[in-house]
Amino acid sequence: MQIVNSLMPAAPRLAVAGAGTPNNRRMNRRRALLLSAGGLAAWPLRLPAQQRRSLSDPLRLGVDPALMQSGLGPALQRAFGRDTGVAVQLVATASLPLLEALDRGELDAALANASEAEAKFEAQGLVHDRREVARGEFVLVGPAGPGRSPDPAGLTGAASVTEALVRLAEAARAQPGTLVFLSAGDGSGTHLAEQALWRQARIAPEAPWYRAASPGTGFAAQVAAVRAWALVERGAWTAAGAARSFVLLRPAATERAGVERVHVMRAFRVSHPAAKIFIGWIAGPPGRRIVAAQPGYRTPP
After folding, report:
1. Among 91, 96, 94, 154, which Cα is nearest to 121's?
2. CATH assignment at residue 226
3. pLDDT, tens digit, 9 for 90 and up, residues 72-117
4. What sign does the CA torsion over 201, 207, 210, 212 have?
5. CA 255 from centroid of its chain's CA atoms
């Protein structure tokens, strides 16, 4: 897991009686947060200033890499901190290991885009308050060719991403060395969606044309640099700014794996006092406004 940053509200911290020891400070902060939880309906009213004491105990929010790279996670962090004064520490990690960390109590809440895996954790009671907060899509992209060959792999006109993957595999096998498919390969929502679409196409992708991305680098930016074919998250791809020189194919209406649903949820094993507040905020009007303003996303019905 990669700890990205913490939002540090600029307003001064207020003195609280009996706050001399770390235990007292934590108890006073948590009491203030719990007492303020009932005021969520009064947005955009600010929560009590004592919540600023969360600087010593920030809410640990796991965020899938694509949701970090698109800017969605940081935008929600900034707006929540501005509205509430509660510090949020973003922890960038792929959705599948993120859910496992949430189950172990290493995170307080999560923002993930791997609906099928999330649903299994929810069914076992390992996560609480799972709510859909945004929708996007996973799209197939690839380098456009020069001149009269804008689509050297011959995917233009494919009725679905699944059909395009079949054509892509055939072209790769017929013309070795002419194209590369780059997989996120990390258990992220993007990777899990890609694997589901390969299964739907009934193809087992293979080396040398099928490769895993290097860890520690933004996946969409890496795809653009390598000029490979890949399934990418639309918001992250938009943020990477490489659309002009690439072919882009959207999933068909029947391809459920191509539809991205972003959910927020909190841990079962730990109970941070700000977790419920964060979920109420992000699923309510303030969070929906932030989602609607982010390129590549829309709010759920």
Report:
1. 96
2. 3.40.190.10
3. 999 999 999 999 889 999 999 999 999 999 999 999 999 999 999 9
4. positive
5. 20
